Amino acid sequence: NPSENVSTDDITRTWTLNVEQARAFRIIAAHSLEQKPKPLRMYLGGPGGTGKSRVIQAL
């Protein structure tokens, strides 16, 4: 149900994000909930297999 409140912790557990992935996810998620956020300029990088796409999918 889209109207249910889902916490960032619920999402990080559902998507099995590791500590670094969860940190990036929380930064982006918190920013997206601001009333009038300034553009978020954030680098999400790393070698293949570090979970960059996983973070984006969780968002």
Could you walk me through the main structural features you see in this protein, from its secondary elements to its overall organization?
With 59 residues, this protein is mainly alpha-helical. The chain has one domain. Helix content is 47%, strand content 0%. It is flat and about 35 Å long. The mean pLDDT is 92. It comes from Thelephora terrestris. InterPro entries: P-loop_NTPase.
SSE diagram, text form:
Blueprint: H1 8-14, H2 19-32, H3 52-58
InterPro entries: P-loop_NTPase (IPR027417)
Protein name: ATP-dependent DNA helicase
Organism: Thelephora terrestris
Helicity, in percent? 40-55%
Radius of gyration: 12 Å
Largest sheet: none
Low-confidence runs: none
Organism: Thelephora terrestris
Protein name: ATP-dependent DNA helicase
InterPro entries: P-loop_NTPase
Task: Give structural attributes.
flat, mainly alpha, 59 residues, P-loop_NTPase, ATP-dependent DNA helicase, 0% strand
Q: Could you give a quick summary of the protein structure above?
A:
The protein has 59 residues and is mainly α. The protein contains three helices and no strands.
